Backbone:
């Protein structure tokens, strides 16, 4: 992979800090799982707090939108603050926010706690996204990035089944308690293993604006928005799709989503292994593969066998999305990794919320088959955006690690 060096780190690390990389990966997993958790808890939360499932869905939409705002805002506000201190503080905020969620007496308090979760998600992910170049040597950046985004990818594909399982076995409040306890553990581990990460050139409005003038970063942001919006427009309704379209019993939906998640974890590391040699071709293959699979679902997903095969393929390919697109952004903006990552994380989280919202509108107005076609069209546009960005990365040699 091409050498990248963030402007916040003037000296490239001479040794690999794998415990620190692993701790950041677990942190991103917990934060993004917290973002996805409400999807599996809508019914029990709505029932206990006497609100509709649609209203309960604001727990996820609200956190995603706040995370999108926090991703660029936090780096702007903190200036030269040691990123090690920032990550620890944000994980502490995550601990407190989920504890508040667990004891919330009404929906207003619960929604306020989700705002705090959104701040933690956006700030932590925006900084963590570019940390690989500061924690490992140049040759290990691809592997470290894959590990960090193994946490993000695993959370994106496992968040729903984990939330459903925790809520079913222990109750929705205990699900938040579990997240709070795990966040506290990660907070303490971060204190122990992270080195000082002082920013010599903090992110400012100019650095953020520059990324919109960078053709490679601009193509990556557009591709991310279209791809993530398309995915979540369909994936938010994967349960009803499996039951109503494929005729699969509700009891098998949870295990199948775990299979989707397991395939996604494999896909994350498969993509990470190829990015150093063929970045553009890897991202293009992921976007095109998702387009084909989602568009095939209305045609071949009417029976259990076809639906399961397509679902596992979908998980395998989507698992490579986070690590691939983040690597695209690092490559397109090697001297402004934190700024580019902040914008990318903002767009990613915004697309999650908008995808779920748009998908719900299509399902309500038309049908489940229609939302798959809608998602497929967005994914096709994402493929075109990736294809159009090939020239922007042409000056970056794709070589063996």
Residues:
């Amino acid at each position: 992979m091409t050498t990248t060096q963030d402007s916040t780190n003037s000296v490239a690390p001479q040794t690999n800090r794998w415990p620190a990389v692993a701790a950041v990966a677990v942190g991103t997993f917990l934060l993004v799982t917290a973002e996805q958790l409400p999807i599996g808890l809508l019914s029990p939360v709505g029932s206990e707090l006497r609100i509709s499932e649609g209203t309960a869905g604001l727990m996820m939409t609200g956190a995603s939108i706040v995370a999108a705002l926090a991703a660029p805002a936090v780096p702007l506000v903190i200036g030269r603050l040691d990123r090690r201190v920032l990550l620890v503080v944000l994980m502490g905020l995550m601990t407190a926010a989920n504890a508040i969620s667990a004891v919330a007496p009404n929906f207003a308090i619960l929604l306020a706690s989700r705002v705090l979760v959104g701040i933690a998600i956006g700030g932590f992910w925006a900084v963590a996204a570019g940390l690989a170049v500061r924690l490992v040597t140049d040759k290990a950046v691809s592997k470290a990035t894959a590990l960090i985004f193994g946490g993000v990818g695993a959370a994106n594909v496992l968040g729903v089944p984990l939330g459903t399982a925790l809520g079913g076995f222990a109750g929705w409040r205990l699900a938040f308690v579990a997240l709070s306890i795990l966040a506290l553990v990660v907070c303490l581990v971060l204190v122990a293993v992270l080195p000082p990460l002082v920013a010599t050139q903090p992110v400012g409005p100019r650095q953020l604006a520059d990324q919109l003038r960078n053709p490679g970063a601009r193509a990556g942001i557009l591709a991310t928005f279209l791809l993530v919006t398309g995915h979540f427009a369909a994936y938010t309704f994967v349960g009803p799709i499996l039951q109503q379209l494929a005729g699969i019993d509700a009891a098998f939906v949870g295990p199948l989503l775990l299979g989707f998640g397991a395939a996604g974890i494999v896909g994350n590391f498969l993509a990470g292994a190829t990015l150093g040699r063929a970045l553009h071709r890897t991202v293009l293959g992921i976007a095109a593969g998702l387009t084909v699979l989602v568009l095939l679902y209305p045609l071949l997903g009417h029976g259990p066998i076809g639906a399961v095969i397509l679902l596992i393929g979908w998980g395998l390919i989507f698992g490579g999305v986070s690590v691939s697109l983040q690597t695209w952004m690092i490559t397109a903006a090697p001297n402004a990794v934190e700024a580019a990552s902040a914008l990318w994380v903002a767009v990613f989280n915004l697309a999650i919320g908008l995808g779920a919202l748009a998908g719900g509108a299509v399902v309500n107005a038309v049908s489940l088959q229609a939302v798959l076609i809608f998602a497929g069209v967005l994914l096709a546009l994402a493929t075109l955006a990736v294809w159009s960005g090939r020239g922007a990365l042409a000056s970056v040699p794709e070589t063996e690690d």
